[in-house]
Amino acid sequence: MSTRQFGRPIKRNEDPRLLTGRALFTDDVQLAGMLHVAFLRSDLAHARIRSIDVEGASRSPGVVAVYTAADLGEFWQPGPLLVPPPPVEKLAFHERTQVPLAKDKVRHAGEAVAMVVAESRYIAEDALDDIFVDYEPLDAVTGLEAALREDAPLVHEDLGHNVSARVTQTKGSWTQAESEADLVVRRRFLYDRGTAAALENRGIVASWDEKSQRLTIWDTTQAPIAIRNGLAAMLGLSEHQVRVIAPFIGGGFGPKIMMFYPEEVLLAWAALQLGRPLKWIEDREENFYATTQERGQVHDAAIALKSDGTILGVKDQFLHDAGAYAPYGLTLPISSQCTLLGPYVVPSYHSEFSSVFTNKPIVTPYRGAGRQHGVFVMERLLDIAAKELDIDLVEIRRRNFIPPDRFPYSNEIIFQDFTPLVYDSGNYEPALERALELISYREFIGTEQPRREEAGERVGIAVVNYIEGTGIGPYEGAKVTVEASGKVTVATGVGTQGQGHYTSFAQVVAEQIGVEVSDVHVVTGDTDLFYWGAGTFASRGAVVAGNAMHAAAAKVRAKILKLAGEKLEAAAEDLELLEGRVQVKGVPQTSISLGRLAAEANPMRGSVQPGTEPGLEATEYFGPERGATASGVHAMILKVDPETFLLEIEKYVVVHDCGTVINPLILDGQIQGGVAQGIGNAFYEQLHFDDNGALLNASLMDYLLPTASDVPNILSDHFVTPSPLNPLGVKGAGEAGAIPVGALFAQALDNAFRDIGLEVREIPLSPNRLFELVSEIPARETA
Amino acid sequence: MDLTITVKVNGREYERSVEPRLLLSDFLRHEIGLTGTHVGCEHGVCGACTVLVDNEAVRSCLLFAVQTNGREVSTVEGLDAGPQQLHLIQHGFWEAHGLQCGFCTPGILMSLVPFLEQNPDPSEKEIRDLLSGNLCRCTGYQKIVEAVQLGAKLIQEKSS
């Protein structure tokens, strides 16, 4: 092929629709006779429900129905466990999943207790004021250690304790590492909650068509196929009677793959009850309670090293905040546990955690999904150890990198995808060197920083490393079809939330078929158009669905060449695919268009050879043996305002390796957006719950998302270490930007305040918190 | 009691009877079906719902529809001259990958229209100051800044 489509920074196919306001988002669905839903949510985080009086609401003009748990009958069931525990020895797991409407008690603020269906959303919300719930308030448990105390209030009384799970994974012998060590560093690290805050809140439209006996759901989900399968089972319908459409989605970042949200189940059920279409659109306040959150963990960690900085082992005991229910099983803490090991040789590792129920909103993956914590703990331990051993921060990392000739590299424990934690490939040192070069590390440390500090400024630099397990299974599929128009359609089951799939997937297919990227129409997120698949999560779209597309497109290419060979009376190897035509190499006048071939492949009369498949079409599936390990280095220079403790990020560098790159423009966008979320997580965003479990900052006025004034330009570079585990050699990149930013802030602030010995051991920070941390350091005696 | 209002939206006049409490955002989206204006926070912070009222950028979630009686409203649907004829600002966004999920984009575009009229050649700082009124959760803003710079350049080239 003369022009390569793969690897080029092609502008996106989907943009004209989005730019002109003509893309369909869930809230844009407008159906005749549609009713609107609002939920009454508990203000209390923990309370017994004595009674619910819906009489007044039911009588309000315009109200069509009011439902409580009692009205759901047999349909009231706790949600399914999404991810069962992986096969790890010494594992305890207690399944408690969310319920559609709270029945006997509420377990977190914002849990839904009643559902109102009305002619308009305004009427539905008015009617919420006319529902009276008699609560018996119970003491709430919000802290992780508090949840484990003997006398702690119980989130699930039948369990007798608040432990959701306990897991221990080990490699080598920590005891031996500790005994052989020249230095053991022990610290406690805290990581607190934030929220994904996609600009689009969640929403669902459900419509039951009596005549066709079909249920259609528009849902802001990252996993439409799994939603279809689950809803069909719950409602006693065939999967073919349920169509789930995940149209354009205004950001996902993980919480939109939680399932089943109570609202998903209830809208579908009520649409069948009422025989009218229903719409519920989450408002921003609801989003702060009813959409899942992430990141509460407390780590007690230790690292054992030789005096030259060689790591002998790490021991980590941590608590993970599951929130009130744990539908996602152990995905997050296991991800933390595995990601901690990073790009380093860690001969021995002892990691044990308890996942704990609290009276706070449910915790499920949010961009990074447990990886932030692991990276934070490991990078901080290395920073502190380097200081104690008087070794350069960069040097201690370099000394411990897994060398490039040791891949595949086994860490001897089990990852969140149930497979052994084996890194497929990697080459860490060149990326580190490049990051140092881009941030001018030596120059900053050697001359710039001393000069500026002399002038009274407070500036700091940081460099951190991380790895990211991406592209996990089980599988995705794709169907590639050349149509009689000569254009190509590719359908897949993963949903899309802004990642540019309409373009990057089109590039994978266009590369094989020899058409323009703009002539490849990608269909995602409609269960009627592709039946099988798992969903968009864990930085896996490009890896898993991308390789399925590659396989399907290669098969279609073979079909094209075979048929064209017959038509043009030429051998397949003498043909080339070019600009929507097949031609004999070097003989453009002997050619046939793809559209014509597609028509020929679908004869309407006459006969075909027995066994002939119609059309230029193929469906293929791809499931990797295990995930592909991406890696990267972030570096930053920041300035601290000595009066306000506000930060200015003067320079931010990302050097990243996600294997083969499909579209560098889209990749850069993913990295930049991830870093922005990481910056929010590190220094702006924190959910503040009081001791009663009430969320104190449930609005975008009080929960600060980074703005264009806060996020710097990011200087990035890429290295390519292709994954041997998939034909395209790609690794995931969706979460990379967000993962190491907390660790980076901590190191940069330590560096900026090294004169007073600051040691940051928690994230998120804020100007206030930074001021407190600095103020808590006892003044040193001046010499 | 409903009130009858007459509003010109993207050059077309609409007469509707509405509740006084009906938000302008809901009026645009649900009463007249212009769903390109998105609602992200309903309390005036995120800027996704930004539209122009008499050529001034406003948050449509903070205005009542009745407040626009007799006035002119412009939404993202009025920016382009047809599917194949994007506004130059939209071109800037397309070329520079200034959007990902695209949910915040209409509000950003509408904030930019009067801004670039008043500041045809803005500095990066001025662009970032303007954009700080609109939240984007996908892009990290860098490519939005580049998109605005490109859009401004395209407009200047056309007018010169």
From TrEMBL, chain A:
Protein name: Xanthine dehydrogenase family protein molybdopterin-binding subunit
SUPFAM superfamilies: CO dehydrogenase molybdoprotein N-domain-like, Molybdenum cofactor-binding domain
UniProt entry tagged with the keyword Mitochondrion: no
Entries under InterPro entries matching the protein: Ald_Oxase/Xan_DH_a/b, Ald_Oxase/Xan_DH_a/b_sf, Ald_Oxase/xanthine_DH-like, AldOxase/xan_DH_MoCoBD1, AldOxase/xan_DH_MoCoBD2, AldOxase/xan_DH_Mopterin-bd_sf
Pfam families given in the database record: Ald_Xan_dh_C, MoCoBD_1, MoCoBD_2
The entry's keywords: Molybdenum, Oxidoreductase
Span of domain Aldehyde oxidase/xanthine dehydrogenase a/b hammerhead: 20-139
Coiled-coil region(s): none
An annotated Gene Ontology molecular function: oxidoreductase activity
Organism (species): Caldilineaceae bacterium SB0664_bin_27
Domain of life of the organism encoding this protein: Bacteria
Keyword Nucleotidyltransferase (UniProt): no
Automatic annotation (TrEMBL), chain B:
Keywords, comma-separated and alphabetical: 2Fe-2S, Iron, Iron-sulfur, Metal-binding, Oxidoreductase
SUPFAM superfamilies (alphabetical): 2Fe-2S ferredoxin-like, CO dehydrogenase ISP C-domain like
One matching Pfam family: Fer2_2
Iron-sulfur listed as a keyword: yes
Pathway: Alkaloid degradation; nicotine degradation
GO molecular function list: 2 iron, 2 sulfur cluster binding; metal ion binding; oxidoreductase activity
InterPro entries noted in UniProt: 2Fe-2S-bd (IPR002888), 2Fe-2S-bd_dom_sf (IPR036884), 2Fe-2S_ferredoxin-like_sf (IPR036010), 2Fe-2S_ferredoxin-type (IPR001041), 2Fe2S_fd_BS (IPR006058), Beta-grasp_dom_sf (IPR012675), Diverse_Oxidoreductases (IPR051452)
Chain ranges of the 2Fe-2S ferredoxin-type domain: 3-79
Gene3D superfamilies in the record: 3.10.20.30, [2Fe-2S]-binding domain (1.10.150.120)
Protein name: (2Fe-2S)-binding protein
